[in-house]
Amino acid sequence: MQTAIAKNHSRHVWLQRLWGAGALTVLALFLRTLSISFKIYLSGQIGAAGMGLYQLIYSVYGFGCTLACGGLGLGVTTLCSRAIAKKQWHRVPQVVLRALAFAAVLGCIATGLLYFGAAPVSKMLGQPILATPLRLFSVSLPFAAISGCLQGYFYATGEVVRSELSQVLKRFTKMGIVMAAFAASPPRQMDAALALIFFASSLSEIVPAFYLSVLYRVSRKKFTSAQLPPSALTAAKGSIALALVKICLPLAVCQNLQSAFHTLENTLVPQGFAKSGIADAMERYGVLSGMAMPLLSYPAALLVSFSMLLIPAIVRLHTRGQREKLGRSLSHILRITFVFCCGVMAVFLFFPGPVSGIFSTKGVAVYLRLLAPLCPLIYMDHVTDCMLKGLGLQFHVMIQNLTDMMLTVVLLYFLLPVWGLAGYLFTLYCTTTYNLVAGWWLLRRRVDFSYLAPGWVAKPLLCCLIAGFVATRGLPPVLSAFPVRLVLFLVLYFALLFLCRDLTSKDLHRLRALLG
């Protein structure tokens, strides 16, 4: 009887996790679809050069946003989770209130820095027209910081899906304002178009902040501090502020360094292209960063649910000291992930034209095919990072990412002016490989797991290549449509995997047992 109850409870927990992960996956796919759809629309309005400027502005704004948020979201999640675990309900709203005060101060400081620094930064980038969009966008930083804090609270209370809907509202607001304004009176100059886009982006940051504030006012009613005397509240607030600083300060330093390197990396690319003699440097940068890379990262949204379930599963095994089972599980997860990666890579290799056809700009398909082999490296690196976080190695992951970005900046600085596009591709492949190998080295130091054996690598690669060739060569006209060929490729790929026993029903059952 007790065994049956335990099984039913286990199944209920599994279904609950699966439902939450599935909802987040659908939401992540929807958000990425909205993002790519908006970029398709913008590329038709402002062209490839405009998309390059758009990406440059976002890279600079990203640094300001990181400075404004200061790791407060994670700090709120950590302290609220601790308070809930200890049933110290009164501390939850106190944590949020203190964090919001920090967010308001940091947001205003970041706004001032970006607003008054817009002109010198634009001149340094060689694009003076970026000053006005940066000033307009800077006003949104306090609202972005407030949203980050409140999202941290909702992650702690488990209301993740409701809070993530704020991002949907944000995207719709921005898209609605821009499309309505462009339809009413299309800007004739690039500076006016960019100013309009980032004015809408600034307004769209207010909407999620307001939405999350309303949700928080409703949600916080389940926590109360009315029963505590004022002296206890004052002492608690002081300790909370100190705890927030201890958690957020190291994280903020690392995140700001990462963001600074990322911004520098994005500014080096168009400048390096220009120095190498490429006449349309900004257009190339716009196609690469604003079109090809978003398409390449789109399928990664499918890993959201997998990653969400993966971290607690690893924490569970690590906490119980089941090192042997943990090693087997990590090897199994890497193998399944590689199967997924090979399928995605083959789609971009064999169908770059139809996939990139959503953009009217020429040349996206060429870059998509050149970047396709990055998919296994990028996706495997993402899953490896989740494994390291499950083992409590978040700080090591941040240091590793910092060294990766430093290496990227150095390679871009020296190689781009000499090799141009070839230098950019070499840098991408070199640094992504370094990040993945460094992650595996960290894992190997903590857990004894098997690297991808030759058979694990060869079988999925051969299966995806064979399926890709069959699905794209010598088909009758009735099967020439892209959706038909894509379905044919997927059916052939998974059929070949099962035939060569690289993927079996036991693998799926083992994965379900691990995550459940």
From TrEMBL:
InterPro entries: MATE_fam, Poly_Biosynth_Transport
Keyword Transcription: no
Major place of residence: membrane
Protein's UniProt name: Polysaccharide biosynthesis C-terminal domain-containing protein
Membrane-related topology note: Multi-pass membrane protein
Compartment annotation: Cell membrane
Transmembrane annotation, as ranges: 21-41, 53-74, 95-116, 136-156, 192-214, 291-311, 332-351, 449-470, 482-500
Recorded GO MF terms: antiporter activity; xenobiotic transmembrane transporter activity
Entry's Gene Ontology cellular component terms: plasma membrane
Keywords of the record: Cell membrane, Membrane, Transmembrane, Transmembrane helix
